[in-house]
Amino acid sequence: PSLETFMLYVQWGDHMEQESLLGNSSHDLRQMPGHLHRNIKDVQIIGFCSAKSIVELTCHMLENAKSLGCLTLSTCFKGENSCSDGEYDICLPMSRDMIMEAHKALLVVERYILGKVPSTVELKVIEPCSRCNALEI
Ligand SMILES: [Zn+2]
């Protein structure tokens, strides 16, 4: 059987303890050994965050999954905003910490991921809903 879609759910809580890439002075990312399935076409990371290991994993996929066509990074818990798909009136509420982390994750995407996305890969970044989970300063 060929694995074509890879979904990774990042457990919130686990990575909160991990080193965030932001504020880390050495920006060299580890190269991960091993290889991904050749047929992988679609990668979705739900709960994408600024933790170094998650960013490394993402870069690894971009560099090694030659068949990759679509990469989705969701900084919320789900693939889509629920209030915008019409099924619910309001999105799942996120705590202030989670929203802060999501914004850090977006920064990391800009700094470390965007430059590595080949033209053949469609990158989709899902941000917290600006209506339901806006960051209040
Ligand atoms: Zn919403």
UniProtKB/TrEMBL annotation:
It holds the Pfam family LRR_At1g61320_AtMIF1. The lineage of its organism: Eukaryota, Viridiplantae, Streptophyta, Embryophyta, Tracheophyta. InterPro entries: At1g61320/At1g61330-like (IPR053772), LRR_At1g61320_AtMIF1 (IPR055357). It comes from Aegilops tauschii subsp. strangulata (Goatgrass). Residues 1-130 form the At1g61320/AtMIF1 LRR domain. This is At1g61320/AtMIF1 LRR domain-containing protein.
